[in-house]
Design goal:
Layout (H helix, E strand, L loop, with lengths): L4 H9 L5 E2 H8 L7 H4 L8 E4 L4 E4 L2
Antiparallel strand pairs: 1-3, 2-3
């Protein structure tokens, strides 16, 4: 099981328009690091993209 599964479940169950990295860390219960970027491709399955410059997750409309 991916350590990011709680985040993927949160995204699936909530229609958040934008999540900051701070909000993501709160959802996960731990600080995210550079390894998070290795998992960002999983976000596309949920209709989101990671914006590293802005440090947010956004819908990929």
């Amino acid at each position: 099981m991916s350590k990011y599964r709680p985040l993927w479940e949160y995204i699936k169950q909530n229609s958040a328009q934008r999540l900051t990295f701070s909000q993501i860390q709160t959802i996960l219960g731990f600080q995210i690091d550079h390894s998070f970027l290795n998992y960002k491709k999983e976000l596309e399955e949920y209709g989101y993209i990671a914006g590293c410059k802005e440090k947010v997750l956004c819908p990929s409309f």
